[in-house]
């Protein structure tokens, strides 16, 4: 770490301790407005699957100077692909901190497993970088609050990967506009169908794949052996074990992710919150109606360590403001159903259907309705929205604060299923009410050598 970054980080921590609200880092390239003709310099941290997707999509707007991944095979493959895409090979690192030390990089894109998101994002902002981070942004509610505080005190632009706010022909923005325009009357119920998970068989300890730094992959999580079965996943995320505690399967373990509830829920519950005007508030209660856990739980923790442990099926009832009932379920067609006193409609990434949608042919939304929802001209490209925000120094439409409100619902839902009981929530204080045991799951401990460098 360079001396100036170390000083900035010490000052930042001192500001937190003193309750300071005005502390700002000294501006570097990322802290200053970009000229309209300037191509920013980016780096991506975490390259498998979505890491490559966001990199190649953003190449049309930015130059990638560096990539980082703890798997040398993945790193080398993506260095070559990026070179083909942009005509210049970026530098490659196993340790992402080498990227943060570079003064020529304006922004980082983070696509690591979820348990790494907060540490890298906070350290990147303290190093003066703007940030894009994949969803779900956090592993706990406490991490969301920390990220918000660092965004506010550094002034960095921070975009979350909730691409339903920008892409898919703007049909989700149209859905939000329909609700806000009163086209279904008073909203009574919203159902987010997000699919379930598959329970794993027992997974034995296996040799760590060549090229993978397993300890670095675990990072803040507890030290455990690598586990995998020989069957290979087909399709997206292929060429990795179907059942393991790493690679694509990390989402099936609470140690590294929040399961399907946090994965797809981060998309659909975000849109539901946006439409309900709940992006800056939250629920009063989360009730697990039904759920299936793949292993036995005791005091909120799985008793087995050789099988995936997130819920495979579930239905949660969330008490939202104004008496609206939000249902989050693993059943039904993937998408969101909005129901009100005067009609209902359904939206997903392929369609938006229902009588309120059909009625638009004769009674269209007012001019500017989508722009009013969006907060300006509607961008159909997530990367473009990030670059626009870096130039204006305004936060993008997929912002940290609204995302964390959605994630709090999902984190509470997972806690409710782990403990097998209803959880009451104070949306103003953003804390669990009257349940000390449940409250312990709002944060997590990190291994000392992988604690956040502040």
Describe the protein's topology:
Blueprint: H1 3-17, E1 41-45, H2 50-58, E2 63-68, H3 72-86, E3 91-93, H4 97-100, E4 107-110, H5 114-126, E5 130-133, H6 141-154, E6 158-160, H7 171-180, E7 187-193, H8 214-218, H9 259-263, H10 265-276, E8 285-292, E9 297-298, E10 301-302, E11 313-319, E12 325-329, E13 335-340, E14 343-347, E15 352-353, H11 355-358, H12 369-374, H13 382-392, H14 400-419, E16 423-426, E17 431-432, H15 436-439
Parallel strand pairs: 1-2, 1-4, 2-3, 4-5, 5-6, 7-12
Antiparallel strand pairs: 7-13, 8-11, 8-16, 9-10, 11-12, 13-14, 14-15, 16-17
Question: Could you describe the 3D structure shown?
Answer:
The chain has helices at 3-17, 50-58, 72-86, 97-100, 114-126, 141-154, 171-180, 214-218, 259-263, 265-276, 355-358, 369-374, 382-392, 400-419, 436-439; strands at 41-45, 63-68, 91-93, 107-110, 130-133, 158-160, 187-193, 285-292, 297-298, 301-302, 313-319, 325-329, 335-340, 343-347, 352-353, 423-426, 431-432. With 454 residues, it is of the alpha/beta class. It is globular. The protein has a domain at 3-165: Rossmann fold. The chain has 15 helices and 17 strands. Residues 1-32 form the signal peptide. It comes from Aeoliella straminimaris. Residues 202-451 form the Gfo/Idh/MocA-like oxidoreductase bacterial type C-terminal domain. InterPro entries: Gfo/Idh/MocA-like_OxRdtase_N, Gfo/Idh/MocA_oxidrdct_glycsds, Gfo/Idh/MocA_OxRdtase_bact_C, NAD(P)-bd_dom_sf, TAT_signal. GO terms for molecular function: nucleotide binding.
């Amino acid at each position: 770490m360079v001396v100036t970054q170390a000083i900035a980080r010490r000052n930042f921590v001192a500001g937190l301790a003193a309750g300071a609200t005005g502390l700002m880092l000294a501006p570097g390239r990322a802290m200053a407005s970009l000229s309209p003709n300037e191509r920013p310099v980016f780096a991506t941290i975490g390259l498998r699957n979505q890491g490559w997707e966001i990199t190649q999509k953003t190449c049309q707007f930015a130059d990638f100077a560096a990539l980082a991944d703890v798997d040398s095979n993945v790193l080398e493959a993506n260095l070559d692909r990026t070179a083909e895409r942009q005509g210049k090979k970026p530098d490659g690192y196993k340790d992402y901190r080498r990227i943060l030390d570079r003064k020529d990089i304006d922004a980082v894109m983070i696509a690591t497993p979820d348990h790494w998101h907060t540490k890298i994002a906070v350290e990147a902002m303290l190093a003066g970088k703007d940030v894009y981070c994949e969803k779900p942004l956090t592993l706990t509610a406490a991490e969301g609050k920390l990220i918000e505080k660092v965004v506010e005190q550094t002034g960095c632009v921070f975009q979350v990967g909730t691409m339903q706010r920008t892409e898919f022909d703007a049909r989700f923005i149209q859905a939000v506009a329909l609700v806000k325009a009163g086209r279904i009357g008073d909203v009574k119920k919203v159902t987010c169908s997000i699919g379930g998970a598959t329970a794993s068989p027992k997974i034995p300890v296996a040799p760590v794949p060549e090229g993978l730094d397993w300890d670095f992959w675990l990072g803040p999580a507890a030290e455990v052996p690598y586990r995998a079965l020989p069957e290979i996943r087909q399709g997206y995320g292929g060429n990795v074990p179907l059942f393991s505690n790493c690679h694509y399967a990390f989402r099936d373990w609470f140690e590294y992710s929040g399961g399907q509830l946090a994965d797809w829920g981060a998309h659909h519950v975000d849109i539901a919150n946006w439409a309900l005007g709940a992006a800056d508030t939250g629920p009063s209660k989360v009730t697990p109606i039904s759920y299936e856990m793949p292993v036995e739980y005791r005091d909120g923790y799985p008793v087995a360590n050789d099988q995936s442990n997130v819920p495979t099926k579930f239905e949660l009832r969330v008490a939202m403001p104004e008496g609206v009932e939000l249902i989050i379920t693993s059943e039904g067609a993937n998408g969101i159903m909005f129901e009100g006193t005067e009609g209902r409609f359904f939206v997903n990434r392929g369609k938006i259907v229902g009588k309120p949608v059909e009625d638009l042919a004769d009674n269209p939304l007012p001019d500017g309705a989508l722009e009013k929802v969006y907060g300006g001209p509607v961008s159909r490209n997530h990367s473009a929205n990030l670059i626009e925000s870096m130039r204006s120094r305004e936060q993008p439409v997929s912002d940290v604060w609204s995302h964390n409100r959605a994630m709090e619902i999902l984190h509470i839902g997972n806690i409710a299923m782990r403990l097998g009981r209803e959880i009451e929530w104070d949306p103003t204080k953003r804390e669990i009410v009257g349940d000390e045991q449940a409250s312990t799951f709002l944060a997590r401990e990190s291994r000392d050598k992988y604690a956040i460098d502040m």
